[in-house]
Amino acid sequence: MNLSWSRLARLSRKELRETLRDRRTILTLVMMPLLVYPLLSMAMNRFLISSAGPGTNGFVIGVDTEQESNWLQSLLHDPRSHPPESILAASGGELAEFQVVIAPEGNADQALLDNELDAAAHLAISEGDPSSIRITAFAGDQASESARRILIERLHWLKLQDAEGILKRIVPEFTSYDVTTTEIGEPQSGNVLASIIPLVLVLMTITGAVYPAIDLTAGERERGTMEALIASPVPRWWLLLAKYIAVVSVALLTAVANLGAMFATLSLTGLMSTLVGEGGGMGLKEMGYIFLLLVLFSAFFAAVLLSLTSFARSFKEAQAYLIPIMLLALAPAILSLMPGVGLTGPLAVAPLLNIVLLAREILEGDVHPLGACVAVVSTLLYAAGALAIAAKLFGSDAVTRTSDQSIGSLFRRPTIATPRPSIGEAGMVIALLLPASFVVSNALMQWIRRQGGEINVPWQLTLNAISLIATFGLIPLLATVLGRHEFASTYRLRRANVGFYLGAAVMSLGAWAFAYEALVLADEWKLALLNEDQIERTRGLLEKWKTISPVLLVTTMAFVPAVIEELCFRGYLFSAFRTVLRPWHTILATAVLFGLFHVFVGSTLLIERFIPTTLLGIALGWIAYRSGSVLPGMLMHFLHNGMLELVARYHDQLAFLGSETEGNRHLPPLWIAIAGGCLLIGIAIIHFCPRTERPEAMADLSQA
């Protein structure tokens, strides 16, 4: 059936209109923001007032009599009760003010209970002088307890000055020591309360997406309209995509309403600077960034909701499925409120938490590029994986009202083996690869650093190879086994014409040189985002590589990556993408993914590697398509990496090539010319080598 984007748009508008007709959606979309944010602002104002310091006229201290008032004021006005300048500077530089009043009916304690005072003071006066002072605060009230603490400190400073004066008159040679204060480190930008803004926005976006997701899946099953919809002459994938667009649209409308209501409330109540701190803000630029993050999160969470509600037979059953998800979403949301939690390490790939932390960094004006990129890319992959799950469920008999399947059927192995994975299964694998590789590589690096110098370089390279096998090798393998796919066709393990091996080997003789020059130029042009410390560590590691066995270096840095990465990208993912994409679309998609996964290396963002690695991925994908096998590309990948590593190791020994290499990181021009010729010859060999047609996906029938 010939489908068009206009037909998809009509299906999406139809689903969206049906959703917006329901009054419950309008209530969530419009009324909730109008009611919630004014109430939250009033509660926040009350919290800030109760937890703040003195008011505009200072702390209000109540006493019972006028004599007590006169004495307390004289003590507080005495300059000797003021702390030293160094101590005052450490407390913000401002001296707290006190307003002493006589309590109504001469009962300061009762006035304190009536919330008319910050603290109550009782002075016992004998023979015209105070002999004792008792200060009372309201239990649990932060402002009252602060007033009591500061008042006690002021009175103790006065007593200390009196004692020192008396001691100096008795012992003239007595000297005291001075106390000074200083600060080191960078001040924390913003306030932890800035987390409340993105947290509330994310939770309200979730709330807006829940009802449409239930109504468009379980609701239709309960009403008995799902069977008629599935029987319509429209592919199920397009029906699901239309419902997905409708859910995402409602979620975004809810996010826009909440974002506008929050911005207006914070601006009108003056809470903006209090929540985001000095130097932060929520202007149009920050609102735009947060909105884009909410777009990502809405896309991810809408797919999660659709995948879960597709199993429900009724509205109530769908609610039962989603309640645990809502509760689970609260855990990372609450964790983001904790001070010291940043967008680093595994938190950068934690769903929901990474979006909240990134939004907080945007508001505070302190965004870390690596954490931000990892958070955005991982959320996109999670969205693709969740949508792939939803597509698998929506395309099965689990969508029919009389189905006896449950959510557990998602994890059952198929009874019939298939030649290759589906695009949905590939999406789930991609969604798992980034967080798994990020967590494993960072955990390995942290463990090596904690060991100090006990782990030598050969062991480090070996552990890196094992982590590569555990992520890019094991995850696709488990997906292949659980999906009951044939290994030979899934990984494209077929024999190829010997000409393809020859062409791949000749291409590798030229491709490595251009990749090497690209990395050198990126370093010289300051395109790398490494700081000086990371650059020094990298140079130190390269120096250590010169002392280890070249066999180990080539095995861990060339052979293992060539085998594992080719089986993953040009094997599993390539065969899955070929079921729905044209050849060159498949080549480009796998090449871009190949380049992206090489950008995230441990805790470092190596953007300069994206272009050369993507170009290498295009060459490897073209070889895999022309040969119909993953093996020739595996050979080119191995030779390419091996020569790069060997040139880096033996660069100092290349002086015999001429003075051009001495003190120069670039390859000699003759090498570049020879490499360019080898690359062109290899391309020609592969192009003219006869390609054997093999039954793949239907997309193979189209031209390359």
Question: Can you give a write-up of this model?
Answer:
- This is ABC-2 family transporter protein.
- The protein is mainly alpha-helical.
- It contains 24 helices and six strands.
- Strand 5 (600-601) and strand 6 form a beta hairpin.
- Residues 397-404, 658-663 and 695-704 have low confidence and may be disordered.
Largest sheet: 4 strands, mixed
Beta-strand content estimate: under 5%
User: Unreliable segments (pLDDT under 50, ≥5 consecutive)?
Assistant: 397-404, 658-663, 695-704
What is the overall number of helices? 24
Q: What's the mean pLDDT score?
A: 77
Major β-sheet strand ordering: 2-1-3-4
What spatial form do the alpha-carbon principal axes imply?
Answer: flat
Write the layout of secondary structure elements.
Layout: H1 5-20, H2 23-51, E1 59-63, H3 66-77, H4 85-90, E2 98-102, H5 108-113, E3 119-126, E4 129-136, H6 142-170, H7 196-223, H8 226-231, H9 236-269, H10 272-276, H11 284-309, H12 315-335, H13 353-364, H14 369-394, H15 423-450, H16 457-482, H17 487-490, H18 498-524, H19 532-545, H20 550-577, H21 583-599, E5 600-601, E6 604-605, H22 610-627, H23 631-649, H24 669-688
Helix pairs in contact: 1-9, 2-7, 2-9, 7-9, 7-11, 7-12, 7-13, 9-11, 11-13, 11-14, 14-15, 15-16, 16-20, 18-22, 18-23, 18-24, 20-21, 20-23, 21-22, 22-23
Throw out a few tags for this protein.
single chain, mainly alpha, 4-stranded mixed sheet, 3 domains, disordered C terminus, two-stranded antiparallel ribbon, 704 residues, D-Maltodextrin-Binding Protein, domain 2, 4% strand
